[in-house]
Amino acid sequence: MKVQAIILAAGEGTRMKSSLPKVLHLLAGRALIRYTLEAVEGISQPRPVIVIGRDAEIVKEEVRDQADFVFQEKRLGTADAVLCTRKAVEGNSDLVLVIYGDMPLLKNETLRNLVEKQKKNSGPLTIATMQLEDSHGFGRIIRKDGKIKEIIEEAQATPEQAEIRELNVGAYCFSSSWLWSALERIPVSPKGEYYLTDLVGLATKEGRIVDSIRLAKPEEAIGINNRIHLAEAEAILKKRICEKWMLEGVTITDPERTYIEADVSIGKDTVILPNTHLKGQTVIGENSEIGPETVITSSKIGNQCKVLCSVLDYAILEDRVSMGPFCHLRKGAHLANGVHMGNFGEVKDSYVGEETKMGHFSYIGNATIGKNVNIGAGVITCNFDGKTKQQTEIGDDVFIGSDTMLVAPVKIGKRARTGAGSVVTKDVPEDTVVVGVPARHLRKVKKEEVENQEK
Description:
By secondary structure, this protein is α/β, with parallel strands linked by helices. It has 2 domains: about 5-220, Spore Coat Polysaccharide Biosynthesis Protein SpsA, Chain A (Alpha-Beta Complex), CATH 3.90.550; about 230-455, Hexapeptide repeat proteins (UDP N-Acetylglucosamine Acyltransferase, domain 1, 3 Solenoid), CATH 2.160.10.10. Helices cover about 20% and strands about 30% of the residues. The strands form 7 sheets. It has a 12-stranded mixed β-sheet, with helices on one face. Strands 14-17-20-23-26-29-32-35-38 form a 9-stranded parallel β-sheet, with no helix packed on it. About 45% of the residues are buried. The mean pLDDT is about 95.
């Protein structure tokens, strides 16, 4: 049987008190709508249809070609939202799966179970329910002789009905042949809206069977209506993500104080220490140690790296890189195999070659640095001339003395050396020692000086 998913995402989200559409608020680094799309992945054929309303264009921009879109002109309730998709959906599938775009914790496995239950159901729909002491405003499942008869919304429930703890989740699977005509028979509510939940009562009055599945974990049903709900969902998802990586062979010494976003990837035998934030599209290799007190955003880190108390943004670390504490890699920083950065170092838009050592309190910007270079404490590439960023090039086996200023554009040849406190304003030839302010040629580099550096 072919299944078509419909995601309802046209709500105003007024309780979020935000200029951003509710489904675009972030949870573990992803927009809410992306979790819903992930939940129907592999289930919906053809691709899902999203019902949009407010700020439709920016929702489309986020989702792009992962779904088709239908615009709900007037906010006339959830049944009207589904009915808006009729032209786009009718005739494309045997079953129609309907969920909300603000329920990011619903699992793909749960929705597959819902669909499979409806495939076996002789009636027109199957719903998801849960057992929960705190109703959280969900509608009550009314049964008679064990069979579902209707859903009563909390606001309309009698005191007796309000005591019922079987609640409506808000995930439905319909027989397509029944759904579209049934939607047209839903009566208008006192609020002037048409509710999808009324389809349950409509089916049972026709003598048809409404089946159900029950969520094993009610947390899946959390809907995001305000910032409190968003924080609740964040805490649950944070725990899920940490548990996933620990089961994959990653050591997380303190999951309560570790934040890992949904799109991060971590290799086995890596250790994540407390107060570490891994964000965006970050990828970490095997046998590395990250943290504590480290924030990494959309960076690639190789195997056997050690990052202590540092901040990395859109950077690349190859294997065996060590850095910290208190280093900062800005966008475009690329540290090759075996590089070491001391405390309070900063690199931006630069390549640092293999086995290079970068001392403390140094800044490297818009530079290309060769292999086995020693960068002393306090070294600065003066890359901005007031108008544009200029390049610095440093060859292999160079020694840059402490507090050297390299005034770009400038090239330092292989095996060259600068004296402590030098201000280099002109290119330095290979095998040359320069000193002073401005730096001047002193002598040629001695063979034993290079050999000592290699040791």
